[in-house]
Amino acid sequence: MNKNLIFRYILIVFFFGLTLPSFAQQRGEVQDQEFVIRKDRVLTVPVQPRNFERIPVLPTPKSTANFNYLVKPFFLNLPPLEIAPEASLKQFPRSNEELFPGFVRVGYGNYSSPIVEARYNLWEDGDFNIGAKVKHEGFYTGPIGGRNSAENHTSVGVDGTLFKDYFELYGHVDYNRDLYNFYGYDPENVNLQEFVTTQNIFNTFKIKAGISNLEKMSDLNYDANLNVRLFNDSFMAVENEIGINGRADFWYNENLRTAVDANLSLTTPSDEFYGDINRNYFKIKPYVEYRRQGLSVLAGANIVFENDITTNKKSDFHIFPAISGSYMLDEAFGVYAGVEGDVIRKTYYDFVMENPFLGPSAELLNTIQNFVASAGVKGTINGELTYEAGVNVGKYANMHFFTTSPSDSLRFNMVYDSDTRVINYTASVGWEYQDWYKLTGSVNYYQYTLNDLDAAFHRPEWELSLGNTFKPTEKFLINANVNAMGGIVAYKPTLDVSETLPMIFDLNLKLDYKINNQISVFAVGNNLLNQSNQRFLNYPVRGIQGIGGLTVKF
């Protein structure tokens, strides 16, 4: 407070205190008063020590005032800024290999075997590409009776893709013509010296059109297509199919995704023993997949509707689990396991592509996979050697097999087993050493337990596949492969006996030498050990067979 104000308040209180007695005296009588004045009295005040300590600096108070700035707009008539991105000037390594839109390959070998193949792609103009291909490979003589065992194959096709901002439209049209002779007779039988085999020509016409998203690494991916297949042979087999396939998946994050696969197949087959049949098949598979730090788990279901007519069939509607998982302890070792049931779609076209010497079919059935349980180990060693080994145990219904027809020994019939148990031991390995050698190999062993048949006719007991690729120089490429199988049991209905066919062993070799960037030569040798291999009873394959030729790119 101000010192003058304090002094004034003290004087007011002092005089106010003096006037109070005077007012009180006026009420009573006047009393005598005595005042003593002493001049020699001295008033002393104690000495106060001086404080030399500095006064602390107080914090500066913040202002609460509002500051307003006046901004005046200035409008300038300027064009917008254009950003022109340019490629980085860093010198990235580039491949010097020149790409050519087309090539032609021609060759010829023993067994009167010409080969002609050509393809041309148009991809440099616009946001589309179109390709056309043609191929013919013939073996106009064969292992038995010369032309009696001839075969040839011709295919023509056109495919294309149209790229848009976020999706692509694709499609192709194919025509295939395959000719086979029924040459499975005994050439030493004198009664068959003048025998002329019958031919069977397969005509297959396919159309496919679809749409899929362009960016395959996006959160949502999809693919849907429509398929039409028309098939007939030289006899009475006709089968037309309309199919719709689709799949979609959505990634919630980098670890979790959900997906659904769908397939619709409408087939109308006819043959010597049946006609006016509609075989319908619809399958949808929803599932969820989780991946993280070496762990992968998939859980879903196969929901299937099919209308095949079989004995003791409970329903056309099936629901099977589809569960699998794997865990990699490290890159070198991991384990996997799973169980899945399904209905495997089988058409006459599938059967005749597996065995081209098939006779008139009496019945077409899908294979019911009640379950397949699998378990095994896998891994990669030193980033070069990959391996996998495991076992599969399955239970099936309506699994198909082939037996020789009792009425025509040149043809085969399909037979089905109502309850089949299969144990499959499998192992595979792959090794790549630097850039000049690559090895792939696999082996499978099967054990069948059947309900209606005596043996798994014309199914191998074991299979072996071994592939070697050598690239000693930039211009030289060598492929050496071995394919073997054994334990194939065939049934002879005329004698009512079974026979185990000899082991199949096929050693083949392919050589490619690049003269320059546009011209190269090749040589192919099959069955180099000249084995009389029989995949099907009475049908030995060609012996040593070689083809040499030239490839030109343009």
- Provide the β-strand percentage band: over 45%
Helix content: under 10%
Which sheet architecture does the biggest sheet show? 22 strands, antiparallel, barrel
Gyration radius, in Å? 46 Å
* Uncertain parts: 10-28, 51-55, 60-67, 69-76
Give me the strand/helix succession. Answer: HEEEEEEEEEEEEEHEEEEEEEEEEEEEEE
Query: What's the total number of strands?
Result: 28
General shape: globular
Count of alpha/pi helices = 2
Distance between the termini: 106 Å
Structure classification: mainly beta
Q: Would you tell me the overall average pLDDT?
A: 87
Keywords: Cell outer membrane, Membrane, Receptor
InterPro entries: Beta-barrel_TonB_sf
Subcellular location: Cell outer membrane
Protein name: TonB-dependent receptor
